[in-house]
Design goal:
The strands form 5 sheets. The chain has a 5-stranded antiparallel beta sheet. A 4-stranded antiparallel beta sheet has the order 11-12-10-13. A 4-stranded antiparallel beta sheet has the order 15-16-14-17, with helices on one face. By secondary structure, it is α+β, with helices and mostly antiparallel strands. Helices cover 29% and strands 24% of the residues.
Length: 351
């Protein structure tokens, strides 16, 4: 199906839903269906609207339809030695470009390169009036609507039906080395805090409970010299994709999985009730735990962070919002989706 015909079909679905007052449950590859709250509504599938609309390797910009498989985007970029620097997870086959943006989830490189939203230049959405509108543009200097298009990243489809996204891309680093260094968690956090004050070519840092894993990326000389200085043993680069896509043994099983966002410092909360895997140099902590929801959230809050339940049973999987911030979210929802058509309640009840 051509781009125009696919958009027309999506517009017709939104128009019909608006006329009937029926909410819509938006899906792409459904690879992140476990995130957030269930949505009751008519299914809208974006995957027929796929393909790369425009790609300019010289300007480091790609524009593609929301239903485009992420593997196709990555393969096209790889042919020109470029990449999506946010290193977005796939989790399973079928992940789409639009789903990547709507979830806003970034991979191991995020603290050093940026999040999904940092690379969004513009987008097109179908709004609750069934109008196909554009925000932002394709180049960094075109800033009209720039912040609103970024707001689509991590919105989980609650603000409109995303049809097209323009993103900045980056060159693939010319050289890479992955290291395993025998340090415990606290030693690793202390060392990472020290290294953060130096211009080292670190692009990923994870502790699995046994040792510190580092990825170094950049020029050959810089990476080689840093690897020699830091020591440790060489390890398979494939570890980072397994971490990105939650394919490590740590993520297996049915025990509830929590994501804790924590301030980057030299300490980890010492009362975490379960198995822990540290990512993002300590800023992201994965926790497997059967402890009560309130207990885990209190621990995260006391540490200056927050906790989201990624896999498990809770009516509020995402961290509760302060009243002022929740009111802001409600106003944004009311402006962009006054009819409450798009993924109602996916993030929070009442949104």
């Amino acid at each position: 199906m051509g781009h125009g015909a696919a958009v027309d079909r999506l517009v017709d679905q939104v128009r019909a839903a608006a006329a009937a007052g029926t909410p819509l449950a938006i899906r792409g590859g459904d690879t992140k269906a476990f995130l957030g709250r269930p949505v009751a509504g008519t299914r809208v599938d974006t995957r027929e609207h796929n393909g790369i609309v425009h790609y300019d390797p010289n300007e480091l910009v790609i524009t593609a339809c929301a239903g485009t498989p992420l593997v196709d985007i990555e393969a096209t970029l790889a042919e020109r030695g470029q990449m999506l620097a946010c290193e977005a997870p796939h989790f399973s086959a079928g992940t789409t470009f639009g789903g990547m943006v709507a979830s806003g989830v970034s991979g191991p490189r995020r603290p050093w390169s940026g999040a999904v939203r940092d690379f969004v230049l513009g987008c097109r959405i179908i709004d609750s009036r069934a109008s196909h509108v554009r925000f932002g543009g394709e180049v960094m200097k075109n800033v009209a609507g720039y912040d609103l298009s970024r707001a689509m990243a991590g919105s989980f489809g609650c603000l409109g039906l995303l049809t097209e996204v323009s993103m900045k891309v980056l060159p693939v680093p010319p050289y890479r080395v992955s290291l395993r260094i025998e340090l415990d968690v606290q030693q690793s956090l202390t060392q990472l805090a020290h290294w953060a004050r130096e211009p080292l070519p670190i692009s990923a840092a994870c502790h699995d409970g046994g040792a510190l894993m580092l990825r170094l990326e950049g020029g050959h000389g810089s990476v080689k010299a840093t690897a020699a200085r830091l020591g440790g043993s060489r390890m398979d680069d494939g570890f980072w994709q397994q971490l990105r896509d939650h394919q490590l043994p740590f993520f297996a099983g049915t025990r509830p999985l929590w994501r804790l966002g924590l301030p980057t410092n030299k300490q980890l909360p010492n009362n975490l009730p379960g198995e822990v895997l540290i990512d993002w140099a300590g800023a992201q902590c994965w926790l497997r735990s059967d402890a009560p929801v309130q207990q885990i959230r209190e621990i995260a809050t006391a540490a200056g962070g927050h906790a989201a339940l990624w896999r498990g049973d809770s009516d509020m999987p995402f961290p509760p919002l302060p009243p002022a911030l929740f009111a802001l979210h409600r106003r944004l929802k009311a402006q962009l989706d006054p009819r409450g058509l798009f993924n109602p309640g996916r993030m929070y009840a009442g949104l």
